[in-house]
């Protein structure tokens, strides 16, 4: 009896202990908070003979490679004679990148080049925090060729209050919205893909699939990727009707097109055309292979059908574009390289960037490794990477991908076609405008939270818009959407005036 | 009358058994799924998705990982070193601090206890911690960056203090009268008397070190120094992260085939978690014994 009671006490104590260590083992060392970042050393702007320097370059990779040191040595062999600098490459896996770089950057750690994007180590946030140096002068002086190779609108996308803070790693910057249909089903039910212009045109096809193919979801949607696409309805990303000279922003949620879209989705959901778990699924991964007939596609870039085929377990797909080729700020800032404010040698860092963006040998070395060891050449410009070669990286974290090799399976003219598409993209009227939410931060956060709650439900048709749409609009208003809209309009007007003044 | 009671009792027992059986299944099932996926041919996974029985059996994932076991073995080595060195050092320092502030005849015991307790409520935060570690202690890329921060936990010190406070002061005094030095008292009397507390805390400290990856994520760049959990977290996190941001990444054309495929990832989970799962039950016996020994004495 006594023993049992004591055991109980000990167990209770242990349980408390366990919860305590689970929650609070973070700050055990109780470090004494001392000193902020030391001031960046004054830039050494000596021309003539360049003194030797070492640059540090942080960038993201899918997985750190065993042969990293080898590549670094080879890179240094190329750049040392040209700019008298060596580089310390610091690849970090994408999953840790944001945490690691945010901490290092906040702690004022010294590094020179740093990869940034709108989806990892957020570019806009870090510009606002002052983590990067403004680059306009450096680019003009040390990277003229890089500047020339990239279209003006891509540069505009990187601007904050008129200043460039990062060099884009130029790649596909277009966005084209459409539907992917598994070819097998399209052929079987005689879907004429050239005739599909709107969602509604797919309805008969979905009906057939639903009726005749048990177990197959006609239209596979995933919550976070299913969006109301303003451009499809003639609006741009800030809700300005394209062609509207007065630049009046519209609340998309209140537009008739929006209502129509969510109603259509709900009707399809009710009929069973859409997968039931649509609002909670994050991505169509391999576990859904062979279980659906159509899905949504965002970037219909040249040759994407071949890429998807591989992911789809070898099923052919047909892409049906629903919109023109356009470009959004998001796709232009998906991969960038910035120079840290703690850099001691920003000039040399920019010279290195120019080299990476112009010297295809250097770029290919960084992206693909060494010929024979890490990849084989199939022809002059196409390579096949060796999966267990010991070095892998993503070419788009380093620089202009159009200077590099193509990967097996890509058509030989992929780069030319992509470049042309990039340049032919419809540049939306408010492109380059960047909403500064400082004055409406709280409202913006509230609205974002409500959006995150309702959008996946409404867009995937999971809930009835007759009931939920008014409720959603009401909540948005209460969260301050009108205040945001007014602030947006004010900033947009100022931006338009500025733009007109500059011609 | 008694028969119905018996029946009710039996029914109750059956319900309890059923409940725990279901609970156990819920715990074991995901693990079995991982085992199954790790043993499935990758192509079959792509075609048919996950299932509890490999649709096409293959040990290629294990074969592949174990053919170049360097990274995994090194990670095991790092983790074992961190855990062993960390636990021993941590126990030593924790018990020394706890003993000092548990001594009734020590004048500064109250302010010192408050000082230690204070750090439980307030900490410097991540960035100052990072600055201290990298710019003052220069511990970047060193295993000490993982061992040091976990070495002295105020919570464990207070627990230890509570335990040691119950050791009669007269014992210490009589040892002193017999001419024992402070060191001798501590190592020959106090530590042996505190074995149950040491065993319990040791278990938790060892767990913390074994599972530690966040400090490693912050401070370790070199691939040679990566501990086991970080190896796993990196692969899993990166994949999750890329998945959650697929909206943005789609246009970049990230070649997902560069990442370890499904069956390989699951095989890695098994290889990382497996050995511990088999070892732990054996050790657990000793720890439970250690705890009960302590309670009987009190």
TrEMBL record, chain A:
It comes from the Bacteria. Residues 1-20 form the signal peptide. Keywords: Signal. Residues 429-497 form the DUF3502 domain. The keyword Signal applies. Coiled coil: none annotated. The keyword Signal applies. SUPFAM superfamilies: Periplasmic binding protein-like II (SSF53850). Pfam families: DUF3502 (PF12010). This is ABC transporter substrate-binding protein. It comes from Cohnella nanjingensis.
From TrEMBL, chain B:
Its main location: membrane. The chain crosses the membrane at residues 12-35, 80-100, 112-131, 143-164, 185-210, 264-283. CDD domains: TM_PBP2 (cd06261). It is a multi-pass membrane protein. One of its GO terms (biological process) is transmembrane transport. It is found in: Cell membrane. Belongs to the binding-protein-dependent transport system permease family. This is Carbohydrate ABC transporter permease. It comes from Cohnella nanjingensis.
């Amino acid at each position: 009896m006594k023993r049992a009671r004591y055991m109980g006490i000990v167990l209770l104590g242990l349980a408390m202990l366990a919860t305590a260590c689970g929650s609070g083992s973070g700050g055990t060392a109780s470090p004494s908070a001392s000193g902020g970042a030391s001031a960046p050393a004054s830039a050494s702007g000596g021309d003539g003979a360049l003194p030797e320097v070492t640059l540090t370059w942080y960038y993201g990779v899918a997985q750190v490679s065993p042969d990293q040191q080898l590549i670094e040595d080879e890179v240094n062999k190329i750049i040392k004679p040209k700019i008298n600098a060596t580089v310390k490459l610091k690849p970090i896996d994408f999953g840790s990148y944001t945490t690691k770089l945010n901490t290092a950057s906040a702690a004022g750690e010294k590094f020179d080049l740093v990869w940034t994007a709108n989806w990892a180590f957020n570019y806009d946030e870090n510009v606002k925090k002052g983590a990067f140096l403004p680059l306009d002068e450096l680019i003009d002086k040390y990277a003229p060729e890089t500047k020339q190779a990239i279209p003006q609108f891509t540069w505009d996308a990187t601007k904050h209050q008129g200043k460039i803070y990062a060099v884009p790693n130029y790649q596909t910057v277009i966005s084209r919205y459409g539907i992917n249909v598994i070819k097998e089903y399209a052929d079987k039910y005689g879907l004429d893909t050239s005739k599909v212009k709107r969602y509604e045109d797919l309805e008969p096809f979905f009906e057939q699939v639903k009726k005749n193919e048990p177990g197959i979801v006609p239209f596979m949607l995933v919550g976070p990727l299913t969006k109301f696409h303003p451009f499809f309805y003639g609006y741009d990303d800030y809700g300005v009707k394209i062609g509207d000279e007065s630049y009046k922003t519209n609340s998309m949620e209140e537009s008739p097109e929006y209502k129509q879209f969510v109603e259509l989705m709900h009707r399809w959901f009710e009929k069973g055309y859409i997968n039931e778990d649509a609002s909670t699924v994050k991505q169509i991964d391999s576990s859904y292979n062979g279980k659906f007939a159509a899905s949504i596609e965002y970037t219909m870039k040249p040759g994407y059908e071949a890429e998807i085929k591989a992911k789809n377990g070898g099923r052919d797909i047909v892409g049906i574009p629903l919109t023109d080729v356009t470009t959004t700020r998001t796709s232009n800032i998906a991969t960038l390289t910035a120079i840290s404010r703690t850099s001691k040698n920003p000039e040399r860092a920019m010279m290195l960037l120019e080299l990476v963006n112009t010297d295809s040998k250097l770029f290919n070395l960084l992206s693909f490794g060494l010929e024979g060891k890490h990849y084989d050449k199939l022809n002059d410009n196409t390579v096949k990477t060796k999966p267990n070669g010991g070095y892998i990286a993503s070419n788009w974290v380093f620089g202009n991908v159009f200077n590099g090799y193509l990967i097996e399976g890509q058509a030989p003219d992929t780069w030319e076609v992509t470049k042309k598409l990039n340049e032919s993209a419809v540049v939306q009227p408010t492109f380059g405008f960047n909403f500064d939410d400082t004055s409406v931060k709280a409202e913006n956060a509230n609205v974002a939270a409500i959006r995150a709650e309702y959008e996946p439900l409404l867009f995937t048709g999971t809930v009835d818009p007759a009931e939920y749409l008014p409720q959603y609009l009401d909540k948005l208003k209460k969260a301050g959407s009108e205040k945001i809209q007014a602030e947006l309009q004010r900033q947009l007007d100022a931006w338009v005036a500025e733009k007109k003044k500059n011609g | 009358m008694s028969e119905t009671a018996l029946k009710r009792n039996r029914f109750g027992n059956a319900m309890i058994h059923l409940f725990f059986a279901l609970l156990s299944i819920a715990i074991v099932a995901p693990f079995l799924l991982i085992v199954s996926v790790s043993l499935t041919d990758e192509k079959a996974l792509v075609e048919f998705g996950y299932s509890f029985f490999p649709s096409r059996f293959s040990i290629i994932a294990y074969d592949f990982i174990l053919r170049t076991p360097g990274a995994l073995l090194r990670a095991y080595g790092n983790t074992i070193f961190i855990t062993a060195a960390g636990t021993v050092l941590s126990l030593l320092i924790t018990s020394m601090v706890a003993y000092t502030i548990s001594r009734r005849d020590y004048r500064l015991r109250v302010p010192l206890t408050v000082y230690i307790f204070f750090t439980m409520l307030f900490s410097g935060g991540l960035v100052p911690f990072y600055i201290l570690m990298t710019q003052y202690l220069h511990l970047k890329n060193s295993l000490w960056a993982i061992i040091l921060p976990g070495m002295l936990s105020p919570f464990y010190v207070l627990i230890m203090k509570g335990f040691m406070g119950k050791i009669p002061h007269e014992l210490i005094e009589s040892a002193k009268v017999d001419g024992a030095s402070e060191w001798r008292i501590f190592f020959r009397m106090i530590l042996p008397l505190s074995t149950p507390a040491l065993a319990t805390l040791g278990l938790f400290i060892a767990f913390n070190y074994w599972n530690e990856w966040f400090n490693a994520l912050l401070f370790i760049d070199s691939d040679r120094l990566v501990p086991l959990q970080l190896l796993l977290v990196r692969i899993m996190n990166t994949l999750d992260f890329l998945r959650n941001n697929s909206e943005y990444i789609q246009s970049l054309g990230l070649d997902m085939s560069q990442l370890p495929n499904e069956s390989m990832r699951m095989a890695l989970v098994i290889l990382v978690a497996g050995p511990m799962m088999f070892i732990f039950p054996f050790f657990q016996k000793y720890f439970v014994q250690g705890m009960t020994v302590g309670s009987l004495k009190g």
